[in-house]
Design goal:
- This protein has about 270 residues and is of the alpha+beta class.
- It has one domain.
- Helices cover about 25% and strands about 20% of the residues.
- It binds adenosine-5'-diphosphate (ADP) and magnesium ion (MG).
- Magnesium ion binds next to loops.
Amino acid sequence: MALGDLEVVGRIVGASNATLLGVVELGGARASVVYKPVDGERPLWDFPDGTLAGREVAAWLVSDAGGWDVVPPTVLRDGPFGPGSVQQWVGAEDPDGAPVASEPGEGLVDALHPAQVPPGWRTVVSGSGYGGEPVVVAHADDPALRRMALFDVVVNNADRKGGHVLRGGPGAGAAAGRVLGVDHGLAFHAEPKMRTVLWGWGGERIDRDGTARLEVTAGALERGGLREALAPLLTRAEVAALERRISALRQRCRHPRPAPGGPAVPWPLF
Ligand SMILES: Nc1ncnc2c1ncn2[C@@H]1O[C@H](COP(=O)(O)OP(=O)(O)O)[C@@H](O)[C@H]1O
Ligand SMILES: [Mg+2]
């Protein structure tokens, strides 16, 4: 992904920024990728520093260093529309190697009638649909999703929509069967800005897996070179805030609940 030839083969319609589908090729090996050129980024008043592409890569670095297994491999590199983030495609590939999109949130996050919420799922939002009918947004009680929810607290994810949760289908190579998150451009703000649909564990104790991930991430920041790797991508205040969030989680040992004041969920939810 970092060194191969990058060709753009399509555009993901409906994305808010220029989100392109690409193929990288190196020495006969091919991989489908999502390429987001910095030039295609819409300026955002609340994220004035750095680039969204840099935040995408920062999220991968934290996920990788802490063993979170949430973000697909992501690099910063040059491409046909200039420098941007390049991320491994999560989904399936058809027999010709063309990427097949997975249904966002499939089997993990959904908007449904309250009576249709599968057993064990956690309801996070209740509201009404266009015709006044009751609608809830709920998510599965799944260990990989729980880990993603905690990862989002660590990186202060301001945009965990239902459609940013993907499951790698069969034929998805390294992503097959795994639950992965995409779109981490709105993360790492120094001020609290968590907006997520994964509030289902709010107030509960962090499990052993989560505790281990926090410890490994803290170690990677202190002495594993993670702090240095993040320095060109985030501001100093943002790296300091990341470290503060991790210490607070390790002290309190609980998943946070939505803070009063700001919006706690992204919009739209999917
Ligand atoms: N790595 C990926 N693999 C598969 N699908 C992806 C990937 N990244 C994004 N997508 C799909 O493209 C949609 C738009 O991408 P997203 O990263 O959310 O762009 P934007 O920054 O414009 O919101 C996502 O909701 C998801 O369905
Ligand atoms: Mg998005």
